[in-house]
Amino acid sequence: MNNYKKRFPENFLWGGAVAANQCEGAFDVDGKGYSVIDILSFGDNSKKLKTMSSQDVENALQDKEGYFPRRDGIDFYHHYKEDIAMFADLGFKVFRFSIAWTRIFPNGDELQPNEKGLQFYEDVIDECLKYGIVPLITISHFEMPLNLVTEYGGWLNRKLITFYTRYCKVLFERFGHKVKYWLTFNELNLITLSGYMLGGILSDKVDNMIEAQYQAAHHQFVASSLATKIARETNDNILIGAMLGRDEYYPLTCKPEDVMQSIQDSRFELFFSDVQVRGYYPSYSKRYFEEHNIHIKKELGDDEIIRSYTVDFLSFSYYSTSVSAYDREGMETTDGNGVITVKNPHLKASKWGWQIDPIGLRIALNNLYDRYQIPLFVVENGIGMLEEIPDDKYIQDDGRIQYFREHIKQMGEAVKDGVELMGYTPWGCIDLVSSGTSEMEKRYGFIYVDKDNYGNGTLQRYPKKSYYWYKKVIASNGEKLD
């Protein structure tokens, strides 16, 4: 008789995910300082995130860049009770959100935290717990204090390890008895795509950007491991996770060169989880570093710290898959989660070009679990859609329902395959400001927020059709998907 798992485990954590910089607003309220992301204006920020300079920062601080939607978000700061009540009605078991570093240490280098910031998050945590919702907190989700960039050079400076671990110690001591699940950094691997957003690196301050990105990542590896050490010393009930932005890479053909390219492309991401999960730099990184003139400066004891304090689980975002080709010249390409990829003719894509691949999620889960053999957590997955609210205030987002139905089916198949899966938090469970473009019209949520790209609207919240569908999914523990 087969004894493989036939359904999601009874303690499976169904919920949703947001980030402070995309939903909170109130960017200058109660002592909050500027974060790196507060100075990104409306529009496609993809190029700027790769080439952000000191002059760009200065222009933004003088408000020369236009409208800054993230500074207002959806005003979760003043609507959190209403929003969490809706999450509770949905049946959330878990709510993933981030703490804005700049609410706790506005400049990042203070010795004492901002009590008003701590109290806000204590109120949010308590509101979740009131409904039996487990908080899953991201400690740094593209929200490092801007002052640490302009005064210290971002994560290129080892002093940030001290500033970050001080911040973590405050969080664990204040909230560790209430919050079990923590993520140290969001999508740390994306530092290779945006040295500014994740590393606070300005393009006019470095000569070798690739080397700078990996040097900054090294300091974050050490900081993450030290945060794990602090957490375990503070409360042995705390579990620390890494967070990876994950694409699966398919070779374009069975030509050996394409297959090898897919392995190399995949390693470009998995290097980061390899270090955080396994506790050491993988052997394949040596060749890459040599060929790209990358020289990592380590201090005595860094490798031991990274080896001694690895993560307890691996979380990841999954939106799409990519295609690897040894020679891409002349091929049609499309956007993905931070990457440009060869277009897969077998897949449909969203309006923004992200290829929709539910089976790819099963593949990702199997590959990650085979590689690491630790619990996995899908903490971001979703689809951006254009939506206008009708007169009856009821959006029939059947396309979103279909997207989630197929992805949840494939997660269930992965569980049957033997993958140890902790939970699922779809991204943007409530409409929020887009990470890549700072727009509102790219909507992800089960809940519509009445606000447009330029800040106009009532901020009223309205459940979509997908809201009621996901509510049934959670109540049935993933069994009722129709």
From TrEMBL:
<dbReference type="InterPro" id="IPR001360">
    <property type="entry name" value="Glyco_hydro_1"/>
</dbReference>
<dbReference type="GO" id="GO:0008706">
    <property type="term" value="F:6-phospho-beta-glucosidase activity"/>
</dbReference>
<dbReference type="InterPro" id="IPR018120">
    <property type="entry name" value="Glyco_hydro_1_AS"/>
</dbReference>
<comment type="similarity">
    <text>Belongs to the glycosyl hydrolase 1 family.</text>
</comment>
<feature type="active site" description="Nucleophile">
    <location>
        <position position="380"/>
    </location>
</feature>
<dbReference type="InterPro" id="IPR033132">
    <property type="entry name" value="GH_1_N_CS"/>
</dbReference>
<keyword id="KW-0326">Glycosidase</keyword>
<keyword id="KW-0378">Hydrolase</keyword>
<dbReference type="Pfam" id="PF00232">
    <property type="entry name" value="Glyco_hydro_1"/>
</dbReference>
<protein>
    <submittedName>
        <fullName>6-phospho-beta-glucosidase</fullName>
        <ecNumber>3.2.1.86</ecNumber>
    </submittedName>
</protein>
<dbReference type="InterPro" id="IPR017853">
    <property type="entry name" value="GH"/>
</dbReference>
